[in-house]
Design goal:
With about 200 residues, this protein is mainly alpha-helical. The chain is about 50% helix and about 10% strand. The protein has helices at about 20-45, 55-60, 65-80, 95-105, 110-120, 165-170, 175-185, 190-199, and strands at about 125-135, 135-145, 155-160. The longest helix has 25 residues, at about 20-45. The radius of gyration is 16 Å and the shape is globular. It comes from Aquamicrobium segne. One of its GO terms (molecular function) is superoxide dismutase activity. Its EC number is 1.15.1.1. This is Superoxide dismutase. Keywords: Metal-binding, Oxidoreductase.
Amino acid sequence: MAFELPDLSYDYEALQPFMSRETLEYHHDKHHKAYVDNGNKLAAEAGMGDLSVEEVVKQSFGKNAGLFNNAAQHYNHIHFWKWMKKDGGGNKLPGALQKAIDSDLGGYDKFRADFINAGVTQFGSGWAWLSVKDGKLEISKTPNGENPLVHGASPILGVDVWEHSYYIDYRNARPKYLEAFVDSLINWDYVLEMYEQAA
């Protein structure tokens, strides 16, 4: 099935002051659109045009770098937009999620510190993740467009630490961007939805 650029479920101003209209317009309308356009072209050339984005990601990993990079970034961004909402973030988590974070990650405060640290310490471009692997939550980081799907895990929350995700608003202060993401942007309801699918 062809890749399609999803509409945002909020307007371009909705995430201010934590993410500006300018960032969303460039990131969604230009960067994500390029992954969709390039991914469609490369998937068709590789005979994978009829597969789901998840299947393209898994089948192209380690075999077709150009296709993998675009397909993985498309997958990552489909969810990235949904992992944020106006008045999101903070430590009021749905019960099932809170319970899993307590038992698997040592509680919310430790999760917050470890997740932010994963994003801060990802050298260059990449992502920080909260995933379900073997029935347990884990925090990880990946370079470029790589994601937990190719490491036997199901991502339920991810944050983009490519510079285009934060440079307009935070310049080189990646830690401040990550703090704002966790404290003010995370859509915990969508994280719960993905957690329930993964579990």
